[in-house]
Each structure stands twice: as structure tokens, then as C-alpha cells.
Amino acid sequence: MAAALTKISSSLVIVLNTGKDENGKDTSKKxxxxxxxxxxxxxxxxxxxxxxxxxxNYPVSTVQKVDNSLLTNE
Length: 74
Fold this sequence. Notes:
By secondary structure, the chain is of the alpha+beta class. The protein has one helix spanning 42-54, and strands spanning 3-20, 26-36, 60-73. Strand 1 (3-20) and strand 2 (26-36) form a beta hairpin. The chain is elongated, with a radius of gyration of 16 Å. The mean pLDDT is 92. This is DUF1659 domain-containing protein. It holds the Pfam family DUF1659. Residues 5-73 form the DUF1659 domain.
């Protein structure tokens, strides 16, 4: 029997560079956006994250797409 993968949800995480702490270490903040359609194209998600980044007070450090899937045995 083969395992089957079914995407059940996706979310977008935008990591913002908020500066440096008192020791000079980079600090960041995460912005989590859930309920992204599982069929959204990666480029479209990146474009949305970039547009959101343009209106925030901090620069975007990274963009993460988090997929949650269900594995079943078929």
C-alpha cells in the first residue's frame, strides 16, 4: 500500500527585521497569516508578502509558506 498526501491548509509567515538588540544581535518579529488557499501559487504568495512588507514599519527578512498535510495509507 502506498501513502497518500493531501494538503489540508497553508499559512504565510512574514519575518520582519526589527533591528539589533543591545548586544548587536539581529532581532525579528513574525507576522502569521493563516487560511491561505492550498492551491495558491508560490509566486502569488511571495508577491502578496512583498506588498504587505511595503506598508509595514520594518523590512521583510524572509517569507515562509507553511503547508499542513494529511498522510493516509491507501
